[in-house]
Amino acid sequence: MICSMKTLGSRIAHYRIAAGLSQAALAKACGWASQSRVGNYEKDTREPNLEDIALMAKALGVHPTQLLTGEPPKVQANAELIGMMSPWDSSTPLHDDEVAIPLYKEVEMAAGNGATHAVEQTDRLLRFAKSTLREAGVHESNAACATVKGNSMERLIMDGATVGIDRGATHIEDGEIYAFDHDGMLRVKYLYRTPGGGLRIRSENTDEYPDEYLTVEQAASIRILGWVFWWSTVRRKRKLSVAK
Asked: What is the pLDDT of residues 124-159, one digit of tens each?
């Protein structure tokens, strides 16, 4: 609904009446002791601040922009439909624009002492569009993937997300996200170089995971698997049963 009222006060009165509220009811909804404030605003004898405009807009069920200009805010699209999903399994042939890339996983070493090692799983492959790799500047022979565990990279990369790794990009550029083998642990973090050859490891969730600083000797235990160029997360609705 577009309001033709010329003044802020007339727009407040217009939307108040449209909402079926009296001046006293609007004042009460905004937490004000008297309706006189609303009356003064509507008569344009007193100019409301932005906080009061926000309170009235919420009470009237409109956007603050509608009180300020008489028009609803402009809505802009932030997504584009590119097509439908096509289910597939391991027996489905690859399309011309697809490639199967390996999955890195953290596996327990044969000694059985709880130690792990990040290795490429040749029996686990992920289908990927060659066009997506080209757009990211990743050669298909360098592409791999891994699964993120835990909440250290949330809200950017969620627990359980699959990330795409460019194994051809192992030179650390400060502030980029890398997958790396850290003493057998498979990790996905921001990396920064520090003076003297050390490393700073940063999580997205810095409230729970403070920065880690490695000396040049400690940094030598890091094996960079590659730059993380893509990630994808499947979210499950609460109480949603898995399709059979």
From this structure: 778 888 888 999 999 999 998 888 888 999 989 998
**How far apart (Å, rounded) are the C-alpha atoms in residues 87 and 161?**
19
Between the two ends of the chain, the Cα-to-Cα distance in Å is: 46
Report the alpha-carbon angle 104-108-110, nearest 5.
120
Do the beta carbons of residue 66 and residue 57 sit within 8 Å?
yes
pTM of the model: 0.62
Peptide bond into 127 cis (omega under 30): no
Q: Is residue 197's pLDDT more than 80?
A: yes
What range defines the domain where residue 210 resides? 98-232
Q: Which of 30, 49, 69 is the last residue before a domain boundary?
A: 69
Residues 32 and 110 in one domain: no
Between CA 81 and CA 19 the distance in angstroms is 36
Q: Hey, what are 87's tokens?
A: 């289910």
- Statement to judge: residues 106 and 218 lie in one domain: yes
Q: How far is CA 108 from the centre of its chain?
A: 31
Tokens found for residue 114:
């709880």
Got the DSSP string for 169-187? --S--TTEEEEEEETTEEE
β-sheet bridge partners, residue 125: 102
Q: For residues 126 and 133, give the distance between their C-alpha atoms in angstroms, rounded to a whole number.
A: 13
Looking at the structure, do residues 134 and 217 belong to the same domain, yes or no? Answer: yes
User: 128 versus 174: which is more confidently predicted?
Assistant: 174
Q: Choose among 193, 186, 194, 195: nearest CA to 165.
A: 186
